[in-house]
Design a protein that fits this description.
476 residues; Aldehyde Dehydrogenase, Chain A, domain 2; Ald_DH/histidinol_DH; binds magnesium ion; globular; 14 helices; Aldehyde dehydrogenase family protein; seven-stranded mixed β-sheet; Ald_DH_N; Ald_DH_CS_GLU; binds nicotinamide-adenine-dinucleotide; alpha/beta
């Protein structure tokens, strides 16, 4: 007997979305001088709020505020004092976690189960972790008395809005830098709530500045001569542009770009666990994950059985209302991203791969894409080479470990990979040969603030998280 799920909606009453938002500069909310824009709820396309857009002059004000705070307050402050602010922010994030999670799900479209259980707890963990380093920087391995770099310009994407903010701001502040951060244009709301949290924590004005806007605002920020360091997470294309604009300046740069990770399943793997890992690898956050396991490489002798179990599991995924606590797969973040996913999925069919989705009813309004798997994929297919950034899995097969490694590394990217096998020696043999910054063994998409994260090749350079993540923000 099968029981149906009853709706289990999380209340949105805890969030108070204002009709309009300004920029956060020098500890105050101020007007922007660009053309304001709207952020929408991707689950129903309803407008949520009007957001100020920072033009070049606004960015200039924000950089000046960050510089003043760096010179007079934050740079000279002892690390043990800075740590107190970071601990305070971490605790407020925990106290306001439900509010942050609901707001993130409304603005981004991700399931509340993920924003509540993954994104927001990791945000708090990141601030706690880097708070602990603030007074121990001399023991981090970057010289006995490392200094902050200065003012950091940080540009982040829409897939993990608050978490990417934490990855950028926590290490920068712990090391004594001040920041100007630009959130993505489709997901600015949790960054603006974070600005309120900075005020609540009585963080000195100008230490954190948030400038909202689209690509032009990001460009004005990374090209500003008053910035000492640029940190960017987003597409490889924009990453390339930023690398060109920073070249020849004294600015430091870290880039965290796209990925096309191989999730390798050997025939001896525990298949049911592997299926859970595959599902988590590609359907977590609608596949809007730079380290998503978007290429499944399965050993030929186990392929039929694995695919059968995978399809059965996919048929149980619940797609729909992001605020329903039963939802597994939420809304696609924007119309533009949905169009890109559709285009690539269509290309997969046109190039001859076989497309399959479970029967699932999608809501009439909003941006939705059913969980999809392609079999019979060749390495030359666009769906095997390009980042789809959606709930679309491409399946390839292999016969020997050598072939698995060769196929896994046959990509311009190198951010992450997964290995599933019962043999420890095979895990080590495979991991050693994969050109990927993160390799998960018998698990996938596990994150910890103590562990460095970053890519090889076109996935970017520099590491975020852990002791390694301090390096980008310190002058040894
Ligand atoms: P994007 O790179 O255009 O946007 C990321 C951030 O950069 C946003 O804040 C954006 O406003 C800003 N930006 C855009 N142009 C800029 C410029 N010239 N200078 C400075 N900042 C600029 O990414 P997107 O258009 O939202 O997504 C396109 C594709 O990128 C996706 O389909 C996906 O493949 C990939 N992507 C990867 C990640 C990741 O985490 N690695 C995140 C988002 C998108
Ligand atoms: Mg939005």
């Amino acid at each position: 007997m099968v029981f149906e799920y009853a709706p289990a909606p999380e209340s949105a009453a805890i969030v108070d979305i204002r009709p309009s938002y300004g920029l956060f500069v020098g500890g105050e909310f101020t007007d922007g001088h660009g053309e304001p824009f709207k952020t929408v709820n991707p689950a129903d396309e309803s407008p949520l709020a009007e957001i100020a857009c920072a033009d070049a002059a606004d960015v200039d004000r924000a950089v000046a505020a960050a510089r003043a705070a760096f010179d007079t307050v934050w740079g000279p402050m002892p690390g043990a004092e800075r740590a107190k602010y970071l601990y305070r922010i971490a605790r407020i994030v925990q106290e306001r976690s439900r509010e942050l999670a609901v707001l993130e799900s409304i603005d981004n479209g991700k399931p509340i189960r993920e924003s509540r259980d993954v994104d927001v707890p990791l945000v708090a963990a990141h601030f706690f972790y880097y708070a602990g380093w603030a007074d121990k920087l001399g023991h981090a391995g970057f010289g006995p008395d490392p200094r902050p770099v200065g003012v950091a310009g940080q540009v982040i994407p829409w897939n993990f809005p608050l978490l990417m903010l934490a990855w950028k701001i926590a290490p920068a502040l712990a090391c004594g830098n001040t920041v100007v951060l630009k959130p993505a244009e489709t997901t600015p709301l949790t960054a603006l709530l974070f600005a309120e949290i900075c005020r609540q924590a009585e963080l000195p004005p100008g230490v954190v500045n948030i400038v909202t806007g689209a690509g032009a605002t990001g460009q004005a920020l990374v090209e500003h001569p008053g910035i000492d360091k640029v940190a960017f997470t987003g597409s490889t294309e924009v990453g390339r542009q930023i690398a060109r604009s920073v070249a020849g300046t004294s600015k430091r740069l870290t880039l965290e770009l796209g990925g096309k990770a191989a999730n390798i399943v050997y025939a001896d793997a525990p298949l049911d666990q592997a299926v859970e890992g595959i599902v988590n690898g590609i359907f977590f956050n609608q596949g809007h994950v730079c380290c998503a396991g978007s290429r499944l490489l399965v050993q030929e002798s186990a392929a039929d059985e694995l695919l059968e179990r995978l399809k059965a599991r996919m048929a149980t995924l619940r797609v729909g209302d992001p605020l329903d606590k039963n939802t597994d797969v939420g809304a696609i973040n924007s119309a533009a991203q949905l169009a890109r996913i559709r285009e690539l999925a269509d290309a997969g069919e046109a190039e001859g791969a076989e497309r399959w989705s479970p029967a699932c009813e999608l809501p009439g309004e909003g941006y939705w894409f059913a969980p999809t798997v392609f079999t019979g994929v060749a390495q030359s297919h666009r769906i095997a080479r390009e980042e789809i950034f959606g709930p679309v899995l491409s399946v390839l097969t292999f016969r020997t470990p050598d072939e698995a490694v060769t196929k896994a590394n046959n990509t311009p990217y190198g951010l992450s990979a997964g290995i599933w096998t019962e043999k420890g020696s095979l895990i080590l043999w495979t991991a050693e040969r994969l050109r990927a910054g993160v390799v998960w063994a018998n698990t996938f998409n596990k994150f910890d603030p103590a562990s460095p994260f970053g890519g090889y090749k076109e996935s970017g350079f520099g590491r975020e998280g852990g002791r390694h993540g301090l390096e980008a923000y310190l002058d040894a």
